[in-house]
Every structure is written in C-alpha cells, then in structure tokens.
Amino acid sequence: MALLAAFFLLGCAKRDLDGDMQPAVATQRFDGTMPVPGAVAADHVLASEAGASVLRAGGNAVDAAIAAALASGVVQPSGSGLGGGGFALVVPAEGEPNVLDFREVAPAAASIDAYATAGASTRGGLAVAVPSEGIGLAELHRMYGRATLATIAGPAIRLAEEGFPTGEHLARSLEESPDMRALFLAGNRRPGLAEALRAWVDSGGEAFRGGWVAEDMVHAARAQGGLVTLDDIKNYKVKLRKPLLGRYAGRTVLTMPPPSSGGIALLQVLGSAGPGASLHCEVEATKHAMADRAAFGGDPDFAAIDVPGLLDPRYLATIAADCGPQTFPPEHYAPSPPPADDHGTLHISAIDAEGVAVALTTTINTSFGSHVIAGRSGIVLNNQMDDFATRFGVPNAFGLVQGAQNAVAPGKRPLSSMTPTIVLGADGEPEIAVGASGGPFIITATTAVLRAILDDGAAASDAVSRSRWHHQWMPNAAIVEADFAAGDTLRAAGHDVRTIEKPFSSVQVVVSRRGDFDAASDPRKGGAPAFSR
Ligand code: GLY
C-alpha cells in the first residue's frame, strides 16, 4: 500500500515513474506541417481511417482519436455517438497523463423512484442521462489537440453527407432494432448529423451546450418523458482525473479511476493473478474484483471509495491466497452483500510518433441507447441511466447487480466498466494503448489482451483474436466464447461454464515499439486499424 500511495502522490509524469529511466529512443518532433507516423485502432475501418487521415494532415494522436470518435458516431451509431459520453486517458508528449471524464450525469430532476418500473432506465426519455460527448471531445481538443476542428470533423462530415456502406456490425444491430433504420436516408446519408457536426466545429463544441443541437437533444428526450433540461447540459462539467497507476511485467500501467470500476478491477486482477497464475486463479481473482465492484463502485464525487485499500498489495495477496482447488459460492467473494449483451460502447486506441497516446472509450450504453433520436440532428440519445443501480438487487441490462454507492442521484455519474488503459514501457514512453467495448466484459477483455501481449509476447492481431472468458461474480458463471478451449479446466474447479454464441466484447489496441506500430481492431466487430503511412 505504501508503494502505491507513493505512486499516487508522485503523480504520473512520464519521466518521474522510473528512477533508472534511459533516454527515450530518438524521437522526431512534428510541428503540424508534416504527417505524423502513428496508428489508430477503432472498431470500424472508416473510423480508424478518419483518425489516420488527421495524422497525415499533421494532427497528433488526440486529434486522430477525436476524428475516429466522430466518424464512429456516423457509421456505427448503435455503439457510440454525440448523444452519449466517455472517458479519454491521454499521455501527452510532455507533462503528466490525465483522464478526461466526460461521462453523462443524472439529470437534476432524477430520483431513484422514477426508475421503479422495469425498462424505465433502458428505453425512452427517462433512460437518457445528460449527453456530454460533444462537450467532452471539444474539451479534449482544447487541452491536447493541434489540428483544427474542421480538419478533425472533416471525415465524419463527409461520411454523414455522402453516406457509407453498411458494415457487418451495423447490419446486425439494425436487424435487432429495425426502428433505427429511420436514422438513415438512402445510401446511409445522415444530413442532420452533418449539420450538427458543422455546428460543433463552428461553435468549438458550444452548440452542444447551449445551441440548437443541445435544444434538439433535450426536446427529443423530454417529448418521451425524459428529465434532461437545457440547464443540465449548460451546467455539465468535464472532470479532469488522475489515472490509476500500477506496475506489471516491468511496465507502468495507467488506467481509468472511478467513476469507472474498470481500472481498479484490471489492477486487482493483474496484481493478484500475475504471470504464471492458472486460468482458475485468474477467474477467482476476477470474481473478487467484480464483487468489490458491486459493493464499492460509484461516483467518487458522491461516495467515498477506498481506492488505495482496494489496490493495497496486502489485500491483493489475500485474494491470491484465497484461490483453492475449487471455486466458491458468490457470498464468499462479497465483503458485504450489496443491498440489493453490449453494443452501445466503442473504444479507440491511438499512438503517434511524438509519444502522444490516447485510449478513448465512448458510450451510449446499450445498442442504440434509449432509442430516442434527436429530430433535427439524428443524434441517438444514450440510456446511461441504466448503469446506475436503479432497482437494488435487480440486475441491469448487463446482468450486473450493483450497490447503494451507485444509486441514482441528481448530477451523479453512473458507475462504468470502461477501462481505457495505456502501458508505458521501461523507457517511460507509451507502448500500448488499449480498451474495449462490452459493458462489464470490457474489464476481462482488456485484461486478456494486455496479458496476451505482455505475458506471451503476442502480436496485436493475435491478442485481440484469441477466444475469451468472462466472469462478473453475479451471475455465478464463467461465460466463454464458443471456441474457448479450456472450459473443462474451469468445470473441474467447480465453475458453472456457459457458452455464448454471440461475440460479447471488442478490443482495439495499438502497440508502439521504437517507432514501429502494431495495431489491431477486434474481429468480433469487424473493424480494422489504420496507419498514417
Ligand atoms: N455503458 C457501459 C459502461 O460504461 O460500462
């Protein structure tokens, strides 16, 4: 714990992390007048390509990630977009890493009583939390961007105006939600969204706080019984947070603090089931982490969360020691009992040759969010209210049972699983940017890909393609993909192993080593990375 506390106090300046750090490999500096080598991995090739084109225009990895996020909202609107929110972990070329938290918050008029009815937090106006993506991406650019907003939004505007081919993931999502076909004119053109993107450029994001775009979103939500007001959007604040920090395999792992549970869980599993741990013990560590998530997870501005305690090496050692030959029933993992398939999230990883790295996860929560569409812009509004514990003891859309710390309250951020993560190599430079979509599956998928790269030396494409397992403590079952080979190993240790046919998580990763970029987008969503040269 002392070691971790020291890390937290030190802050995270890249070159402060390792006393024995060697000078970084010679790094060429780019000033916006020449293409920046780099790689972008989003879960749609057109989004990755939007990001790479901004690098070619002299932008940095932050510009590229924003361009990819905006383009994703056009071509993959079931999974993200300007009606949602997100987190961005940034390692800049100089200075300290930061997390921009632009997660949606509960409207000022929200109370837990409004969500007593099943479905209130998943569909329709009540499900909509304050949309904050446009505000957050503008702030991310203001802090770290170099290219103009017009350059960054250019690819997304073109895609919205001219249309694009229907990707495999979008086709699947529309089969499940035929009502959402209304988003597209012939050829998948989305002129209203192009207009909103132009407004984002012209106003520096302000149209999403007080202009017509904000009014359009509020009107749509309220027309369907929603609680969001223009004042909620005007009062919205992006929060700057310090990343959590841990050590693994001789590297420094920077990851997402609360209001996400993802970073804590990732570091708990890496810290209690390190390289060489058996699959069963890794699942056991995950069950502990997920039980802690349910008991302690929430918005740190509303509830005290003992992050140093949850990451204390002595606590992690007790988790490691608890792994016996057989798994235990759920109550074994819960320090105190809590009182009570994702398609709506998207992750983008980008690293450039200047040493800027971004892990950006954005979400409207589940597929097509609340299914409420802003009339003029065609922006799909989130159903992030379902990430709160709206009905204690009742699982949410992801089957998660959550605790009182995550109860609905005005202005509060719902607990997330999003785990944008950046690993710094021994030289202190960004080596891996990684993260995923998939609700709670984000945590296990991000951990699995990191381990494949760091423990096994896997290439990026191998790491994201490997078959995966998941456990979230409740339900008490190990969920495995159809081609997962080690199901019998888990059965032998007493786990209830259930196979799911559908892909359940999607990881995007960029690895940068001495000027070489290796990147991969998860085949489960059919994406592909893009390189700037
Ligand atoms: N809405 C998915 C998450 O934040 O975990």
Q: Which secondary structure elements does this structure contain, and how are they paired or packed?
A:
Blueprint: H1 2-10, E1 38-41, H2 45-56, H3 61-75, E2 85-91, E3 98-102, H4 133-144, H5 149-162, H6 168-176, H7 191-203, H8 212-223, H9 230-234, E4 239-241, E5 244-248, E6 251-255, H10 262-272, H11 279-296, H12 307-310, H13 313-321, E7 344-352, E8 357-365, E9 372-373, E10 380-381, E11 421-424, E12 430-437, H14 441-456, H15 460-465, E13 469-470, E14 478-481, H16 487-492, E15 497-500, E16 506-513, E17 516-521, E18 529-531
Number of domains: 1
Give Rg in angstroms.
21 Å
Quaternary organisation: single chain
| Proportion in helices | 25-40%
N/C terminus separation: 44 Å
- The computed structural class is alpha+beta
Major beta sheet, strand line-up = 4-3-2-8-7-1-18
Strand content: 15-25%
Mean pLDDT: 90
Shape: globular
Give a quick rundown of the structure.
With 533 residues, the chain is α+β, with helices and mostly antiparallel strands. The protein has helices at 2-10, 45-56, 61-75, 133-144, 149-162, 168-176, 191-203, 212-223, 230-234, 262-272, 279-296, 307-310, 313-321, 441-456, 460-465, 487-492; strands at residues 38-41, 85-91, 98-102, 239-241, 244-248, 251-255, 344-352, 357-365, 372-373, 380-381, 421-424, 430-437, 469-470, 478-481, 497-500, 506-513, 516-521, 529-531. It has one domain.
